[in-house]
Amino acid sequence: MIVSTPSGTSLTTASFTDVTGDTIVVIVWGTGAFNSFAYSDSQANSYSQKVAGVTGSGSGSSTYIAVATVATGGTDTVTVSTGGATRAYGIFAMEYRNVQGYGKTATNVNDAIPGGSTSYTSSLTFTNTAGNGGAIVETDQNFGCGTGCTIAYNNGQTQRQGNLAFAGVADDYGVAAATFTISNTWTWASPACGAPPACFDSHSGLELLGSTIQPVTTITQCYGNCGSPAITLANTNSTHTLNWNQSITMFYIFQPTISGFLNNVTTSLPKTYPSSFYAPFLAFYQSNCPINQTPFSQQCPGLQLVGGQTASFSKGKTSILGGINNIVTSSATIWYAVSLSFQLAPEDVNDTNTQVAIHVTTGTSPSTITQDGVFNPNSKIGIWAWITGNIISSLPPPTPNPAGCVGLLDCLLPQWAQSLCSNPTAACVNGAGLVEVVLLTVISVFFIVKSAGEVGNIKLPIGEFVLFFAVIWIFVLSGAGIFFIWVPVLIFFIVSLLMSKNLARYL
User: Fold this and answer.
1) Cα 39 to chain center, whole Å?
2) Which of 212, 217, 375, 378 has a beta carbon 3.0–4.6 Å from 355's, enabling a disulfide?
3) pLDDT class of 315 with cuts at 50, 70, 90
4) 14 phi/psi in degrees, rounded to 5
5) Distance between CA atoms of 174 and 194, rounded to whole angstroms?
6) Helix (H) or strand (E) holding 452
7) pLDDT tens digits for range 108-129
8) Could you tell me the pTM of the whole model?
9) Alpha carbon distance 72, 20 (integer Å)
10) Is 435 left (phi over 0), alpha (psi -120 to 50) or beta?
């Protein structure tokens, strides 16, 4: 999740689904000497800033790393605010699993990159780490990285987030030794740095402690109609008879099995055309659509993430490029599409050797797709996208509980509350906890009254018993982490007010 802005007071990520027990790592990078960011999210998780690489210059680069453990999984958004001051900054939010704690930190802030530089290397050295089994999360922001800004990771780090327009990145590195150094190298074409202070860099890192290494493999997969194996092309040209003059766009719909970023959208021309006017239009779309609704419709429109006319009209493969900012997410409610269109007819692209249902909509590479139909359920038109992402190649076995779920406070009561919610968000679980309080209070008072009836004709203050057990159960469920922290505080003040009114009668 990436958010960046030239200036502002508050930034919020797009919504994502987190998992109970996971760790959210928030990366902040910005301009100026400032260290008063406030971190929060919509699930009321508690954040702690672990690292701050703060510049000493009003126009220098600063980086920060904050963390939180997910108390209750669900749909979430992360917000980082300044508390009122307008700052130029950006944020990344990433989720890690099986984090056992936090270890060493390191920062490297340079407010005086030499004048005339068009590259800069920053290093972080970690000593006495926990060694094999953990990971380093690092962020680097370079103020001065200009046209053609790129970053190279010199120790095999894996980039997780990046915004090269603002020269800010986040990556991680698997720890394999107790003491080591990792570095990044920024390069750019122009302009060269002026005399210091003109170019700045802030580099920060945090050790995540883990009990077991989970090997992460970076893979690139093909989606659309790629042929089998990818890429297998045929000499037939299914597009030759299509009337592109009517302004139509053909596209394949798919859901990726990996999360990552788009490399490119590609097709293949079987011959060279006379001018760029014949070059194809390619595009990549995304449709966020709840289950049981149709993607690329009025209810779930498809929005173009990247698209345009390719630069090549010569025989061979031609593409539009994506990049690390074109994020792709594997989700049951997110659909993607690759599309092809031309301005003239007839126009040809190569077929593949596989048959995939292709859809059609009006317009030449439209910015939004709100209606479509299946043009051919067995199309061979070659249009495809390459997506790069990461997969965990092995998972540690779960730790079994031989007795099952038998703990009342830390297992049965929380699971009871969560079972009342179809989507166990913090707000829903909090409301379900109030239902638990009512039921548990009724049960408790019932047994008190029943016991008193068995002893004899004893008159009981039922109202006082209801209030007593309700307060007790509220504090018990709060201790189990079911309620927001303000619920027992509010109940405490209400009970105190009621008691003060009753005591006033005796004064």
Assistant:
1) 16
2) 378
3) very high
4) -70, 160
5) 36
6) helix 426-455
7) 999 999 999 999 999 999 998 8
8) 0.46
9) 5
10) alpha
pLDDT (0 to 100) of residue 400: 43
Q: Is residue 133 within 8 Å of residue 209, measured between CB atoms?
A: yes
Residues 95 and 429: their CA atoms lie apart, in Å, by 22
Q: Determine how many CB atoms are found less than 10 A away from the CB of residue 141.
A: 31
Q: Is the per-residue pLDDT at 198 higher than 60?
A: yes
Position 451, amino acid: S
492: Cβ contacts below 8 Å, ≥ 6 apart: none
Locus of tokens 């798919």: 254
Sheet (strand 119-126) strand order: 119-126, 180-187, 150-153
| Full DSSP string of 388-419 | EEEEES--PPP---TT-S--IIIIIHHHHHHH
**pLDDT digits over 239-252, tens only?**
999 999 889 999 99
CA neighbor of 338 nearest in space, from 316, 320, 311: 320
CA 284 vs CA 120, 233, 244, 431, 490: distances in Å: 34, 21, 19, 41, 51
